[in-house]
Amino acid sequence: MRQHAELAGPPPQVDLRARARDWAEIQERMLVPLYEAVHERLEVGRGTRVLALGCGSGLALLMAASRGAAVTGVDPCSPERLALARRRLQPEAWGTRARADARVLDGPVDDLTDTSGTGTPAYTLVTAFEPIGCLAGDSAALAGQLSAAAPLAERGAPVVLAGWGPPERCATSSVVRAVVRPADPPAALRDGLEEVALSAGLRPDGSGRVACPFGYAGLDSAVRGMLSTGLFDAAIAASDENQVGKELTEALHAHQRPDGTVWMPNVFRYLIARTA
Question: Nearest 5°: phi and psi at 208?
Fold first, then answer.
């Protein structure tokens, strides 16, 4: 849900470390059903070698590693999130026992090389769980990453892309439209997953939909979580974070329950494509 990073940097007034913490502590868990559905369908486990593009703070990688997979994460767009992923997956950096099967790497996908030592492709699964379809240019940015990553995977290896479901089934889309101004990049929440896969030289081979409701303890955590996605960066750049936070709070009132919690049902879609 953080589409802005390769397209335009976040507004200068944003505290990137605080935002990364909000993502890891509040927002990232909203996509757990998506991660679980993909891992189950593709039988991720021992023998699976995962390359995660835009790995963020590493929750999906941690879940794959807990199933026995060897995992590699890259995310050149958010060093702050990557630092949290490294803390989760490479605890030797913090004085505890290392995981030999987990790597978190700085730099773009193009910098990755075969590390198997055998000359064979390093990965059996590539994931790009960051949902596309929110901002202009996000599809093209992902296609470029996938094109660079595909040669690192085995022939016929699955590549997973994610996107938002239909707007009428995503309560969050109404909140985004209420805050993002017409002059900002479009917030149509259209995924275009098949088009992205084909443009990257991949072969679509199945898809699925997963319910990923956004649930928060209250309005404050909902605002912090939503802002951490990057969906509102253009609006922040046009005004300021406090103003956008106020508008977001107002839009979220419609989804607040009598007990103060905030609940927004959403459906996300994933596409499984195959390398050539």
Answer: -160, 165
Residue 128 phi, psi (nearest 5): -135, 80
pLDDT digits (tens, 9 = 90+) for 56-115: 999 999 999 999 999 999 998 889 999 999 988 876 654 555 555 888 888 778 767 655
Residues 6+ apart with CB under 8 A from 177: 187
Indicate the DSSP class of residue 26.
Answer: I
CATH domain 16-274 topology: Rossmann fold (3.40.50)
SS3 174: helix
Sign of CA dihedral 48, 51, 53, 59: positive
State the amino acid at position 218 in one-letter form. Answer: G
Distances (CA, A) of 81 to 52, 59, 126, 201: 14, 11, 19, 29
The ranges assigned to domains in the chain are 16-274
The span from the CA of 248 to the CA of 252, in Å, is: 6
Within 10 angstroms of residue 257's Cβ, the number of other Cβ atoms is 9
Structure tokens at 23: 């993502």
Q: Helix %, strand %, coil % for the chain, to 5?
A: 40, 20, 40
Which tokens hold the place of 9? 């940097």
Q: Roughly how many angstroms between the first and final C-alpha of the chain, as a whole number? A: 28
Q: What is the mean pLDDT of the chain?
A: 87
What is the per-residue pLDDT for 2? 52
Q: pTM for this structure?
A: 0.89
Contact by Cβ (8 Å): 85, 71:
no
